[in-house]
Known about the structure:
38% of the residues lie in helices and 17% in strands. The chain contains 9 helices and 13 strands. The chain has helices spanning 11-22, 79-84, 86-107, 143-163, 187-196, 216-228, 245-256, 280-286, 294-311; strands at residues 2-6, 26-31, 50-54, 69-72, 110-116, 167-172, 175-176, 201-204, 210-212, 214-215, 235-237, 242-244, 262-265. Helix 3 runs parallel beside helix 4 (143-163). The longest helix is centred in the first third of the chain and has 22 residues, at 86-107. The termini are far apart. The model has no long low-confidence stretch (mean pLDDT 96). It binds nicotinamide-adenine-dinucleotide and uridine-5'-diphosphate (UDP). Uridine-5'-diphosphate binds at residues 78-79, 174, 186-187, 190, 202-204, 207, 209, 211, 245, 268, 271.
Amino acid sequence: MNILITGGAGFLGSHLCRRLLAEKHRVICVDNFITGSEHNIKDLLNKKKFTLIRHDITKPLYLDQKLDWVMHFASPASPVDYRKHPIKTIKVGTLGTHTCLGIAMAKHARFFLASTSEVYGDPAISPQPEEYWGHVNPIGERSCYDEAKRAAEAMAFAYKREHGVDVHVVRIFNTFGPCMRFNDGRVVSNFIYQALTNQPLTVYGKGSYTRSFCYVDDLVEGIVRFMKADYPGPLNLGTTYEFTVLELAKKIIALTGSRSKIEYLPAQADDPRQRRPDLTKARKLLRWQPRVSFEQGLKKTISWFKKEIDSRTIRTIPVA
Ligand code: NAD
Ligand code: UDP
């Protein structure tokens, strides 16, 4: 197949490019590098079946070749990144999704949207099933991301209803692994980098809010299976192993053997207090479930961060 991946130089996109190339597909990666990096795809640049197009997907894009899948991953995804680029985040979620749906329609391709657990906002119920409509502050600091993704989902289903586009919408819960930026501001990358450089681990508020973290290989497996299934979604993907941010900090200090202490910083506005997916649908539909334990995933990620830190000349990057 010929597969277009927007945001292919980002954390998740680069893993997916590698996975689909391994399955012998042709991959066209579109990225403007606002939060991604060529470093993530440097091993792919000389591959015959890989093409990189530097382009802002909020602007029209015309491609000659036939396309089978259009997979829209482009968007700042870390709260620090989208708070820094709120307008670009809304634009890529809305205009960027519009461009991708237009391409998918023109090419009769299957469309994929990387949506997010953030569509549930600060959830009033736990775990969150796909039927839950969410609890989102429409004008808060996270709204540029949450509401853009909600609009993106609405647009995908409007194209399905009005034009019959074959859409596939996944709601991704917190995912981690190699190729995260050291200073992207997300909790796992922040804590691992801080622990490995013996800086204090920055816990916001009391560290009592919860998340559940999925290792990237499991998520990519779920996405690939979902793309081959005949179901539009929305579908939750993630893990159900839920714990607090403080527990995470302590685990990372223990696994890295770090001398770091914990530093408590003010709580973030509109930070969801809990998050855990109901995975009943994904398990049934895809016969899928996460295989990598949280500890195994952390060990793999820590060892990647260690190697990267050692190979870079600038040894202390301030954490965002
Ligand atoms: P990332 O920031 O590492 O990757 C996003 C990529 O999109 C970057 O390479 C960036 O340069 C590119 N991009 C952004 N705006 C663009 C534009 N206008 N045109 C072209 N390229 C653009 O983030 P990620 O963690 O890999 O997330 C990828 C997608 O998955 C996002 O859509 C995000 O909302 C979704 N998601 C991720 C998670 C997670 O835990 N990683 C959770 C939920 C949803
Ligand atoms: N967090 C933290 N310290 C950090 C980064 C994040 O305490 O250095 C907390 C954040 O407030 C949230 C959780 O960790 O409660 C997950 O944050 P992240 O930015 O990784 O993703 P989110 O799930 O909020 O999108």
